[in-house]
Records
---
Amino acid sequence: MGSGTAPRSVGIVAPQTARFSEPLRLRSGAVMDAYQLVYETYGQLNAERSNAVLVCHALNAAHHVAGYYADAPDNVGWWDNMIGPGKPVDTERFFVIGVNNLGGCHGSTGPASINPNTGKPWGADFPVVTVEDWVATQARLADRLGIRQFAAVMGGSLGAMQALAWTYLHPERVRHALVIACAPNLSAQNIAFNEVARQAIITDPDFHDGHYYGRDTRPTRGLRVARMIGHITYLSDDEMASKFGRQLKSGKLHYTFDPEFEIESYLRHQGGKFSETFDANTYLRITKALDYFDPALEHGGSLSKALAPARANFLVVSFTTDWRFSPQRSREIVKALLDNRCGVSYAEINAPHGHDAFLLEDARYHHLVTAYFDRIQREPSA
Amino acid sequence: MRDSREGLERGDRKGPGPFAPMSANGNGFKRADFDAIAESIRPGSRVLDLGCGDGVLLKYLKGARRVTGYDVEIDDASVLGCLTNGVDVIQSDLERGLSEFESHSFDYVVLSQTLQAMRNTEGIIRDMLRVAREGIVTFPNFGYWLNRLEVLAGHMPVSDNLPYQWHDTPNVHLCTISDFEDFCAGHGVKILERKVLTSGRPVEVLPNLLGALAVYRFQRA
């Protein structure tokens, strides 16, 4: 596998910051005069600058993709099982970049940042951002790092939407795209889940129309509920059944509204943890970016036409129990790529974990990604 | 498809019999029908390869005929094998048809040593001729004299081309050369070319009796 070494961690990593002062017009029409992006890199950029891999994050993640921090060794990157020396994306061979998206809450300019026009946090005034906006900012970061063309752009879920968007927005800058647990747009059911999550946040009395930074409150209750809803949709029914079933915390019923079933206590714990570290305004914007993503919209509903500019080769992966972004949705992407005669491989992984499977270690899944990166490594770079 | 691949692997384990297909494991050997298929394909064509196993046929055709295209496989090991062999692969169940593929989007669709394991024989042949100008199929000829001999002796044939016991075979639609030609005549399929092989060598005389493997190229009548 990979370079032949046993898989290891990339070790201690440190985030970096890139500041941009050239105004950026967003899809919404709003203009960001200046902004910063926080990112991490792993491995070495080769002399030809041809081995760079961009990893795009999904809803609740950020730039910390692999390794750990010197002062927080337990804070391991969210895709550490995928990226590192000897891992499927082998940092002995590839230069991997993780970047916190614009609007985020992990260091890149976002709603909690200071609005230079007012000297106060942006709050509700921070513009709505889209997948295409993120790609535009990532492209500027690539320029800054001297990367003309990525060996691969990859991601899962919302991250996969960015990888897909790269291929039609900057066809000449992407040799391969790994589009994992993706959908060409959200279904009504998906938008519905997002809207319930947003309503939970917006109706929290501590939300204050998004201007809560100056007050001593945060809408943590709403964010907690939002995260609990999201979490349910990332797992499969079977996975929840096998993990929790109807197990009770104390072994007997108490006839109260305190958490009695294990699943209740698990969701509360996950929601609570998340609401302490994540910003509600960012959550609102990321769910909107998900809802808005629909490359076919500007092409009369034809995804094939939307993807016509793509020149990359693709690996599309779906998971059988993912009911949020089902295999059928990935097949729509595959069909559009086949219509355009793109190089594309498609794998449907039989995994029990639902949408979250893209984050988990699964031998079949990781072997595929390994084989695909071996192939990227073998081919001559442009 | 998994079935034909497993068949080959089991055949290999029996040691090289007189009709042993050559290894399809990508180690530089090629199966007996690969050359016959390659000869039928114009250089530079677009080829869809159905159920070959680990992409070795398409890899071979890419080298020998500079073709482009995809493999279609159902099982995980074959999908991984294709990627390892540098062949693009779509994981899909052939029994569900080829709906991902637009009509007339390929020059050839190849179904090598998988026809006999398909349940929906008519459906796949029809879909092959929908997505491509021409179809190519290869299958073990059940009318081969050694098979007939085994049936006469009172047993279902088990050989290197038909390596399964009757109770665990994936081969649900075995046929003879005559059967397949009758099928084509009755289903609007025009045969353009036929090659019959035994031990990799062409058979000219009494093909339905002396041929172990049949290779057909066909189009819509």
---
Amino acid sequence: MEAQRITRIEGSALPMRGNDIDTDRIMPARYLRSVTFEGLEQHLFEDERKGSAAGDKAVHTHPFDDPRYRGATILIVNGNFGCGSSREHAPQGLHRSGVRAVVGESFSEIFFGNSLMIGLPCITAPPERIRELMDLVEKQPNARLRIDLQAGTCESNGFACSIALPPHARQALVSGTWDTTGLLLERYEEVDAVAARLPYVGGF
Amino acid sequence: MGKTLLQKVWDLHTVRTLPTGQTQLFIGLHLVHEVTSPQAFDVLRARGWKVARPDRTFATVDHIVPTRERTRPFVDILAEGMIASLERNCRDFGVRLAGLDDDRQGIVHVIGPELGLTQPAMTIACGDSHTSTHGAFGAVAFGIGTSQVRDVLASQCLAMEPMKVRRIRVSGALPPGVYAKDVILTIINRLGVGGGVGYAYEYAGDTLERMSMDERMTICNMSIEGGARVGYINPDDTTFAYIRGRPFAPPGDSFEAARRWWRSMASDPDARYDDDVVIRAEELTPVVTWGVNPGQSVPVTGRVPVDGDSGMDRQALADARGYMGFTGGETIAGMRVDVAFIGSCTNSRLSDLREAARIVRGRHVAPHVKALVVPGSASVKNAAEREGLDDVFRAAGFEWRGAGCSMCLGMNPDKLEGRQVCASSSNRNFKGRQGSPTGRTLLMSPAMVAAAAIAGEVTDVRDFVQEKVGGGG
Ligand code: SF4
């Protein structure tokens, strides 16, 4: 299947502060009880948002409830975002809610890979830049961010920084080959050759 | 220059370099469970693909299964739908399934090793982050998401990026009452929950070499909690002795050939590591988590951190303490617990249950505590029952359940309620992890959970038992 080429992402942003935000927080396990990914966008961070025990007690409005960030397509996060459970339901929920890129200090590997597989780039920038970006967006929630994956830049109203994406991820996104199954099924004789040299496959 | 096991396995399983620069890696064993596979099978169906290697694929049910009433159809319609969907997918695509009534059923990371499916120098993938458990056998095993489950089903391959290797050497004798769980919790505390990102952890050293396979699985299981997607231990005689004779082990004479090959795949003595860390086992104590990630732990004799404690991010500290209801400076021992859970792919194997049973034998759970034991597999359950461990637990006031993930993640009816505090032998103390959005989890070894259940509060298992405590996971 032809995947879409993803080179530029433009839109307003939503800052989600905190290190080590795990996928249990992003998508509580009870929403893994369905055999499809449909409707997951309704349950993002549910246990800490308005209407939950923790959310109703919270001093600050949860960024995902904050009307100023409604319609944001770029999520800004701190370090080790998406750690913990491998549930793809977390990036699926974000993507289905309209998020088209996540910019942060660092990501858990599994979350990064799951996001890439659905065409959701997880882009990194140095901690100081992330701090500036979060401050900027909190002050000017309507600011539009422009991310250029090819050029490796992120800019907005007088702000500009370079962003990083591992070469393979950049390549996969800009060439529209992030849906890997097709690639893996090409030249299948080479796969059979590898299987044939593994003693545990053919028998010791 | 020698090579690490990771490099050898990686090279041997490499099909080619993809146009993206990633490595196409052949997956030797794909383990499948009900929760992360339905959408993947749906894509195969929609695109008219087959499962590439049903002979390298094995499925079971664990995450959503009830551990008490198992009559079909379940009262829980979603759980019923999910199990029925896996049954249908396995039937349609020719995948072997250890289903609900199969005596091989259990947590996927418990049954893989038990059945001898898990072997050294394999690449193993599963739609579950604790797939690192299988690294205890010297396999390169890692968790994947549902789109990658689709890739493996359709092609038996994954597009992967190389990993660095950090060797973590643990040396010396573990003091009595200190277990594999305390070792790994200490490692995560020292290196951080994100410290392993980009790395595979190779656990080595004489302490590890003396450990049983159950203990090694506990260590490798929690690699991902330190950010390392892969954790492994070089295979040795302990590994080979465990595998021999299991249903999927190489049969008869071929076992010797297998053993020679497995040994040759271990890291070379002159292998180069990207990083090296040393841990002294003698210095370790029982560890308890006080916060909302597995790195936020203290020795059982310690206190909840206060502002200004070194190395703590102020915001994270305040947030974790707020959630847990601490102000800082409290001793962790003496924290009242409402629930005691012995189970999960980290600590639900026979040796874990034996060790916990040793502590509860002849004692009784505190009146305010709800305590449950959930064996990791049907086979662990049966073996424990043959030894009478179920009677020991029941007599002490524990509930004795069927195999599954249960209260590790609360996808079935076993959940915390409200702000309950749970002493748990599982691996994650994330906010809301055990099924209540405000529930609180304290991670510790199964022996420590048993002691907490009896005392009704967190307590030092070293004081609790007079006789020498040792062995077990
Ligand atoms: S026991 Fe817990 S951590 Fe292990 S596979 Fe099940 S849910 Fe995941």
---
Amino acid sequence: MTGFEDKMAQLRERFLARAESDRAKLVAAATLDDRAELRRLAHGLSGSAAVFGFPDIGLDAQALEEAVDSDADEGELRRLCALLTDRLARETQRT
Amino acid sequence: MTTRILYVDDEPDIREVAAMSLELDPEFEVRTAASGVEALPLASEWKPDLILLDVMMPVMDGPTTFARLREQPDTAAIPVVFITARTQAQEVEGFKSLGAKGVIGKPFDPMSLASTVRGYLPG
């Protein structure tokens, strides 16, 4: 493995660890309808997930971020958040 | 000849990947900033040849940072390329009409970022 690939693998592991903790935070934020926290978490995942090989997580996170930005109702935010947290659980368990 | 690249993004993991990717080009010297607020004085002091600027950042977003760079005489002429997930034609044209040199889609490919960036450099 080259130095670049080795470092990318390390960063991917760090992303997976963070994704697991973000999943719990997303559930809590959706329960509290804490939109600022939902947006912060979704923004972080949407920017980084695809770079580490998880494009679908990135797309779900982007959808949630855009829903917060467009002031979607609480039900829609919870639906999109559930899609994202389910995806996070599936993708991070698969690896 | 060294080419100085300043990469500005609020996501620490992405900053790290971007710096590593850009440094695959041996002529690139890379520094990063975590926000527009951090980038402005760094750009003034370090005088990068190109700035890669994330669009969506808290406190000071990319377009606001870009406007401030243009207001500072010592950074006004530095070419800026926006980094954004929003790459629909209308949005890309909007960024270019602000005076940006170009737009790179996010997520970017870590293996080809350096060559993409080189395409925005003169000659």
---
Amino acid sequence: MQISMTVNGDEITREAEPRVLLVHFIREILGLTGTHWGCDTSNCGTCVVLMDGLPVKSCTVLAAMADGHDIRTVEGLATGGVLDPVQQGFMEEHGLQCGFCTPGMMLTARALLDRNPHPDDDQIREAISGQICRCTGYATIVRSVQWAAEHPAGAAATGEEVNA
Amino acid sequence: MARPDPPGWEDADSGRKRYKPVTLMMLTLMTMDLIDVREIRVPNARDGLVFAPGERPLGGGTWLFSEPQPGLTGLVDLTALGWDPIRRTEAGLEIAATCTIAELAALTPRESRDPRPGQAADALFWQCAGSLLASFKIWNVATVGGNVALALPAGPMTSLAASLDAVAVIWTADGGERRTPVAELVTGVRSTGLTHGEVLRSLEIPESSLAARTGFRRIALSPLGRAGTVVIGRVDSSGETVITVTGGTTRPHQLRFDEIPGERALADAVDGIDDWYSDAHGTPDWRRAMSLLFAEQLRGELEAT
């Protein structure tokens, strides 16, 4: 079937089997492998993307159900070659070790900060609930999100560009 | 629908079609449980809700991949029908089947999320949503109607709707409409009064229930386990008292009394339940004992407030 959606600001249309999950559509058909595929049972949260601005687990959403919706993946966080404050925060506060959970964590953080620019630690921990860091690096993830909240201009303020 | 050719390309030298190596994802797709699903239709009007054999309505779809779906060949996505998730009417609250758990949970004011004796019914939205063991990222997709229509013993939306005397509005295959109490719609484990071609359109919660005092109890064998039992008490302004037992039974049970019952009358009513569920999440005896304890706790709590 034909599936159309907006991904990171670009309108795309692709053919996919009806049963294809959004995570596979993003990774295999669009080639955006920043979205990770972990448990495939909606437990680990590494596949989190934003659908219409809300975090969803893309291994629990059929690609067909995202038809007509706005999807944002980790590739869409940096804009104009400048890191999103959340990405910068993860750099500054060492918010990642192996990096497997990082894309989902950062997208959830972005959704949180869009709605609550000044979250406390409990609110950050509630936001990332249902997302597992297998390195158990939650403390630095919380600090990274706090860094982003305290530096809403993020990387733009430092003039640092993405090496991509 | 014809299965599309696998991804590949024409080799410029040989003219033969070549294919990229089979990836882990492709292997998984070939072996997962939805290999028979050939079509997903997305109607935007009721006349598109005509179901072929093997087709089923699709709400959030979050449960689909959790177990085999024998006989499922097509899905009809209800989410494009544009139903208002929640409507307040003079009669009460109308919750669309496509309302997400997150939208429903948001009905509970933040200050009402913590359990307190004799709370207003609006606290139940949050409490029952919290009984759906999933992060809010699942709540953002899973639907109220989907949870009811699944008819799982621990379906928290069934607990909520039954406890508040919600009425299910059902679109029938002939273009008509019928209504039935949710407590009667769910008839057993994975069994409802819905017939093929019928669509759960909405749940109507009467104002009298929304204005009631309520109490909530739930237990599971582990902190994040499936509910062993969910007991919800409700006292309307008329004094009518309803103790609803779900989660530990194969179908909802409403124990009705003209006023807050005495201890013996309530215990007898709970003892009258004869379909305690048995699985890895609890034995029938334990579920019965916990339900009895919770019902008595709620009786005292509602009497005192």
